[in-house]
Structures are given as structure tokens and as C-alpha cells.
Design goal:
CATH topology: 60s Ribosomal Protein L30, Chain: A
Helix content: 10-25%
Mean pLDDT: 78
CATH architecture: 2-Layer Sandwich
Shape: globular
Number of domains: 1
Length: 123
């Protein structure tokens, strides 16, 4: 939990178990056969936790960390595709229509942490 892994070998298999209410974030670059996986535990970091060296643990810090790790393997930001899994509602008191429901918190945190640039700005 709170870990990330990347690979540039097509034969490698990246796995995580027990997501529950956590979110698995996968980044793929099929043109370079690279992949990254993060097991994200919490939607938001705090100033104290940002310096703790576990960016994959928080949705608002995992995207730059995973994109950076993929970049070190040669992936280009514009070539990455993302897949999100998990984020189950584990507790009955979390209402699906509530603005504080678990899936909505995850999606807001991940969306805030990565705002795609326009094509002209990324050239």
C-alpha cells in the first residue's frame, strides 16, 4: 500500500492486492512498452506527509511521481494512457450521492493533481 512500480520490460507483470477503498492507478505507454502502477491509499496529502517520501500513498502526489518514473524509462507524457481501478465504497455511512463519497473524493483528487496541458503548450 502506498507504493509504486514501473517497468520497461514487456514480460514484467505489475500487481497489487487488496485495493478495497484504495485506488490502483496504471499508466501505460504502448509505444515504448512501459507501464507503471501505484496503490494509492488516501485522497489528500498534508504538508507534513508530502515530505515523507511516499508520494504513491496520496492521490494528489502520485501522478507527478508516476509520470516522472515513467519518464525516466523513456515514456513521453503525451503518450501515457491511464487506467483507474478500485475505490470501493467500504462503509454504509458513505452515500453515493454525497459530495464526500469515496469515489468522488478520489476522482477530484486525481483530477486536481494532473491537469492535461494543451497540445500547443506541450511542444
Amino acid at each position: 500500500m502506498g507504493e509504486l512500480a514501473v517497468s520497461g520490460a514487456a514480460k514484467d507483470v505489475l500487481t497489487t492486492i487488496g485495493l478495497g477503498s484504495c485506488v490502483g492507478l496504471v499508466l501505460l505507454d504502448s509505444s515504448r512498452s512501459t507501464a507503471g502502477l501505484a496503490h494509492v491509499v488516501y485522497p489528500h496529502s498534508t504538508p507534513d506527509t508530502r515530505s515523507g517520501g511516499q508520494p504513491a500513498k496520496y492521490a494528489d502526489t502520485v501522478v507527478p511521481a508516476l509520470v516522472g518514473a515513467m519518464g525516466r524509462l523513456g515514456s513521453l507524457r503525451g503518450a501515457l494512457e491511464a487506467v483507474l481501478v478500485g475505490g470501493a465504497r467500504m462503509f454504509a455511512f458513505v452515500r453515493a450521492r454525497s459530495s464526500t463519497s469515496v469515489p468522488r473524493m478520489w476522482m477530484r483528487s486525481l483530477a486536481r493533481s494532473h491537469r492535461p496541458r494543451s497540445r500547443s503548450a506541450s511542444r
